[in-house]
Amino acid sequence: MLKSDNQKPVATALTIAGSDSGGGAGIQADLKSFSAHGVYGASVITAVTAQNTRLVIKVEAISPAMIRAQIDAVLSDIRIDAIKIGMLATPAVIDAVADGLADFRGPIVLDPVMVAKSGDALLQDDAVSCLIDRLLPRASLLTPNIPEAERLLSGKGDLPPQDQGKALLALGPAAILMKGGHADGAVCHDYLVTESQIIGFDAPRIDTGNTHGTGCSLSSAIAAGLAKNLALDDAIGTAHQWLHGSIKAADQLGIGQGHGPVHHFHQFWR
Q1: Do 253 and 269 meet the contact criterion of CB atoms below 8 Å apart?
Q2: What's the structural domain count of the chain?
Q3: Distance (Å, rounded) from C-alpha 169 to C-alpha 189?
Q4: Residue 95 is assigned to a structural domain of this protein
Q5: Which residues have a catalytic role annotated?
Q6: Is residue 266 part of a domain?
Q7: Is residue 270 part of a domain?
């Protein structure tokens, strides 16, 4: 039966990212994050990884034609309120995504996934310049961690995070969320950097090794907030608070023998 015209539509978000067979990051984490925030999630898979909490065993990219077909299939039928982009791997994949989103006018959260928690590379060296040229100017928000920001800026890694954010703005994104998870100290400092302001988001660090998928989960939670028409700083604040709770509850899951996932549904079940 077709949907009634007077039925109130639910907020929707699309994730374009790689699949994590261990379930803690990538597409799986994104869809969990959308759902935890009451947002319907659709997906475009860019790569399939054979990985667990300890290591990435194998990565296979999906063909650019299939990626484009997934994007066209979703956008031609489902109203998408916001998009989160994660692992892209190769220049050909980046081109397929950029071409497929040429007519999309909603917010795009770009998480420049480059290295897995295990240390395995997830973005080819020759794909970095393509990412900068084709997708950074389309991003409503770019969400790099410290190593990703340094790689995108190629040689400006010694700048304070606020200045790194300003330098990244020059590459085209509308806003930058500089993530401080890789820094030291008892408090994790994230900074939203725009042309007009810098807003800090702080949270005490939690002593746990179960942080697999934190970057994916944060960026997709922000996309969920934007899909629900939250202002950017409100979407980040809501996602930031939720992720802190997800990390705090991560040890309750007991998943795997390495870097376990965060608890996306800590508000609902334990």
Answers
A1: no
A2: 1
A3: 19
A4: yes
A5: 179, 211, 213-216
A6: no
A7: no
Which residues constitute the domain of residue 65? 12-252
**From residue 242, how far is each of 181, 218, 250, 254 by CA, in Å?**
15, 9, 12, 20
Per-residue pLDDT tens listing for the chain (270 residues) = 455 555 778 999 999 999 999 999 999 999 999 999 999 999 999 999 999 999 989 989 899 999 999 999 999 999 999 999 999 988 999 999 999 999 999 999 999 988 655 555 667 778 889 999 999 999 999 999 988 898 899 866 678 899 999 999 999 999 999 998 666 677 888 999 999 999 999 989 999 999 999 999 999 999 999 999 999 999 999 999 999 999 999 999 999 999 999 999 999 998
List the CATH number of the domain containing 170: 3.40.1190.20
Does residue 269 sit within a domain?
Answer: no
Strands (E), 62-178: 82-85, 108-110, 141-142, 176-178
